[in-house]
């Protein structure tokens, strides 16, 4: 008899929908149906039982082909690569659990490397603005139950977060919004006529790269300087700015969701900074929150885990041994790769090869490249070693953080293929093997020492 699992978490985008219903075969080995998930999330679930899936580590051979090896051999290879590297870097983590992110931090502490995550190329500017200005925020549950004005700025959830509008922001029937979308006003600021703009009440087709100008104009209206605004700001007529400003001020509970269209245009973190300031100004006359549209289902996870551990959400440099530091531009992956400072790159839970600038990929590929990922991606295909692992959220349970930083416990749906390991198990195995190698090396270097050698005394020496 088939098993029906309810309340399952979706391993796709930052919405981290936890209402998925999965039908599993009676032997618990095959996923038969997936309900409530978007098309992309459904495909991730179904991929787990794809008969063409790679289930064993693959090591690049001198002729360029891959050869299958055991997990023990793969762990030994990775540990020796970290031991011999001067500056290893581990990057990704958007599709891993918080447990694996904790294990990665432990590994890079022992290996004296750098930890970075996908925020480095997406919402890093948002995190920097949060440092500078704080930010008024809320949960997605509050959005569903209370929000009457939704502002999407530089985001296109129809494609990037397929259930964001239907589950949280526009269409659901909330506790205080029982008539759903008929009680909500939707405003989209985007230079393109996106599908999200197509369902909006107001689409401000802003001139690309002029977000700061328009945000500043809204603030001028709030402060009573509308007479000083020119007839056209950032490609938007003054009359439209005044009309939308009236809606923003009149909101009972408004929420601004912003995407990479705001964080990666001219101004970057300063755009987010002034958007936060606009929310603060609006809160003098209304009630507003602001939230980043995070991409992967647990990309908020490493930000939280590493902040608890080191005080920094990304670009964490552990090469000094005694202390961690963060300085985007200096310790961020793209910048380190562009300066050719990295001599070992470990890609985990993302596809750096598909998203990095080609020059950065070429410089990283000059050295050893290891990919830990269940998927056959570009990062896996160019790697010297590809270690496939269980799919987080499908075969591997764990904690994930939704885009509103609410932690959710994801449950396992089916078992991993026999003999496979999770990313947490692989990372812990590499850390244990690296400890052994470091102590063996220390004993060889100090053969006459009568005192026992501790790991702490030889790390990063």
UniProtKB/TrEMBL annotation:
One of its GO terms (biological process) is respiratory electron transport chain. The keyword DNA damage does not apply. One of its GO terms (molecular function) is formylmethanofuran dehydrogenase activity. GO terms for cellular component: membrane. It comes from the Archaea. Keywords: Oxidoreductase. CDD domains: MopB_FmdB-FwdB. Residues 53-222 form the Molybdopterin oxidoreductase domain. InterPro entries: Formylmethanofuran_DH_bsu, Mopterin_OxRdtase, Prok_molybdopt-oxidoreductase. PANTHER family: FORMATE DEHYDROGENASE H (PTHR43105:SF14), RESPIRATORY NITRATE REDUCTASE (PTHR43105). This is Formylmethanofuran dehydrogenase subunit B. It comes from Methanospirillum hungatei.
